[in-house]
Amino acid sequence: MPKVKKKTAPRKTTKARKKKQASFGEVWVDSFGALFGRFTTVAAAGVTAVALIGAVLLWSGGYFGLLGEHVNRMAGAGAAAVGFEVKRITVRGADETGEAELLSAIGPVIGSSLIHFDPYAARARVEDLGWVRSAAVSRLLPNTIHISVREREPAAVWQLSGALHLIDQTGAVIREIDAYEYSNLPLIVGAGAPSSASTLLQALRAESSLWGAASALIRVGDRRWNLRLKSGADVKFPEADVERAVRDLAQLQTAYGILDRPIEYIDLRDVNHLVYREKNTEETEVSVDPTPRQ
Prior knowledge:
This protein is α/β, with parallel strands linked by helices. About 40% of the residues lie in helices and about 25% in strands. A ten-stranded mixed beta sheet has the order 6-5-4-7-8-9-10-11-12-13, covered by helices on one side. A three-stranded mixed beta sheet has the order 1-3-2. Strand 11 and strand 12 form a beta hairpin.
């Protein structure tokens, strides 16, 4: 009878050993990758910190500003080199504003880069000039700066502490003047008078018959105005609604020629009646407007 061989279970030692070895390799790779990742993160953080510290040192030392100025100068020189160089300045509307004043406000721009010229800052400087009411400054390629000016119109002369100042109808001071200049304009007397006189000045300028007769505006008690006529007579205006009082006086002049009489004074402080007095006579009361005021 033949012998029966017993089947033995296959040996698992080799596979188990291989599996064990593979697990060890994977663990080693993972550990190395994690270590390398941590090292990279730390290194990147260190580089970033060094860069930030360097930036702070450069900023505190002003090197960024110097670098920006250097780059700007190079760009300006390059723009001028290719033809965008300021070679002329043209002006329109500046009848009273001096050329030297305008050039000083614009600055030393001849020969510099037109591209880097700031027209908005230049306009602000031009509008600071006394004669200039408003201005526009523009760049005209390839080489021109153009200035357009609207000037103030003189309306009166303001006297303060012995000094005379030319002002416009809004009360803005144009410049200081001498006694012989603008003698045809009315004189304004009193501290703070120009801004307060603006309403009265505009109302008077709208009535040619009154404007030509005006000699001075005198502030009374910082509340109201007296108008000194060239004849020497005074017109007393009310505190409020001075424009209506001016129109009433102009209508009376047109209708009766009241300013052509030998008037000593005219009182318009009553809103319904005008009181005037001729020299060597008694006061006369006249109804300014027979219709009721609204």
